[in-house]
Write a structure and sequence with these properties.
CATH topology of the largest domain: Nucleoside Triphosphate Pyrophosphohydrolase
Strand content: 15-25%
Strand order of the largest sheet: 4-1-6-5
Shape: globular
Length: about 400
């Protein structure tokens, strides 16, 4: 029998992107072993990973002034416990930012020193190889944002914290229910003013008072913090409970399959659906995305806000298509856009990949030029046709 447990932790980085430094803790374990780690620890009963990570940073490093910035995925490993029993652990990792480096290591837990290390050097200082991979993901996000620079969004952090705290109370009467976050708000490439916050809930009756309250919570948080945010409910088959159509069912299936990769649990329990999300035909999914993009581009609009919304939605379709392609080829690869572009190297989809790169460049510079967004969006239908043609011609 294997003893199983779940933990959560955080890579904490200073929010000065000109010289970012990462917090690592030197610890002496009861065995006398010395190690350099990041704050992490076991989930308490009923605690979601995001809340656990925040608590562990406060308890182990004495650092309470932190802000959520990204989800870094899940680390899983096996080991032999102190009593000789085989054990398996999963650790959900988050990226937090802070404006202060004042820390108080928990000496009663063996933490003897807190160090703020240049982001580029943190990997070499960390003790465990698997955690070094988590640091790689964190540094990639930091580097992407530092290029322009594109500051981490405080509005996002405030919104996520509010939704997570209030959702926890609302779904308390539904022990299998949970709330997750996906999209750019989870991946770390959230662009304030351009990106929206995508939230999902599962194992919750769509007509229940709790579901209604969750929608109200998300709407109020979006209004209060000046960000777009939307909540979708998953049905028991892994589709969209709102019955909004096959495009939304396809997106919901994908999001649920990515829990622990780039979909983060922020309240309640991890999803355990009665029926596993079914795999759909990739060419059909690309056709759905193409149909949506064409319809959006054909709509008449005059107001600047309408133009921006249309371009944003069409370009979101482009990135969704890239992520579908990568998820079908390499399910273990994260769906952060630069990783998607890298994973699509090779093949004949040059038009599609080129547009993805241009869109990533547009986002990392702040996504403020509407005319440029419209020019990029106009290229999306033909790029999707090229991508679908590549899929249909590839051997089964």
């Amino acid at each position: 029998m294997t003893r199983r447990s779940a933990s959560a932790g955080a890579v904490v980085v200073t929010d000065d992107l000109s010289s970012p430094r990462i917090l690592l803790l030197d610890q002496v374990r009861k065995t006398g072993e010395r190690q350099t780690v990041a704050p992490k620890g076991r989930l308490e009963p009923g605690e979601a990973p995001l809340q656990a990570a925040r608590r562990e940073v406060a308890e182990e490093a004495g650092l309470t002034s932190t802000r959520y910035s990204a989800y870094l995925g899940r680390e899983a490993y096996t080991f032999t416990d102190n009593d000789g029993m085989p054990a398996a652990k999963v650790v959900d990792w988050f990226l937090f930012t802070t404006s202060t480096t004042v820390t108080t290591p928990a000496r009663e837990e063996g933490f003897v020193r807190a160090r703020w290390i240049e982001a580029s050097a943190a990997r070499q200082a960390a003790s465990h190889p698997q955690f070094q991979q988590v640091l790689d993901r964190a540094v990639a996000v930091i580097t992407w944002r530092a290029a322009h620079p594109l500051p981490f969004s405080r509005k996002l952090s405030y919104l996520v914290d509010q939704v997570a705290a209030e959702a926890e109370a609302v779904i308390a009467g539904h022990p299998d229910a949970g709330v997750g976050m996906c999209g750019s708000a989870a991946r770390g490439d959230f662009v304030e003013g351009w990106s929206g916050v995508d939230l999902i809930a599962w194992n919750l009756p769509p007509t229940s008072a709790a579901a209604t309250s969750l929608h109200e919570i998300v709407s109020e948080a979006a209004r209060r913090h000046g960000s777009r945010a939307q909540l979708h409910l998953a049905d028991s088959h892994g589709g969209d409970a709102g019955r909004l159509g096959p495009l939304y069912d396809m997106k919901m299936r994908m999001v649920l399959r990515r829990v622990g990769l780039d979909t983060a649990v922020i309240a309640g329990a991890a999803p355990t659906l009665a029926t596993a999300p079914e795999q759909a035909d990739l060419a059909d999914d690309l056709a759905l995305l193409h149909e949506f993009a064409v319809a959006r581009l054909a709509e008449r609009r005059r107001a600047e806000s309408e133009r921006e919304d249309a371009a944003r939605r069409v370009l979101s379709v482009l990135s969704s298509a890239g992520r579908l392609l990568v998820a079908s080829r390499a399910p273990e690869v994260g769906l952060w856009l630069p990783d998607v572009v890298e994973a699509l190297r090779g093949g004949s989809d040059d038009e599609f990949k080129s547009l993805l790169r241009h869109y990533d460049d547009y986002r990392r510079t702040g996504a403020t030029d509407i005319e440029q967004a419209e020019r990029l969006a106009a290229r999306v239908p033909s790029a999707l046709v090229a991508a679908r043609s590549m899929i249909e011609k590839s051997p089964s």
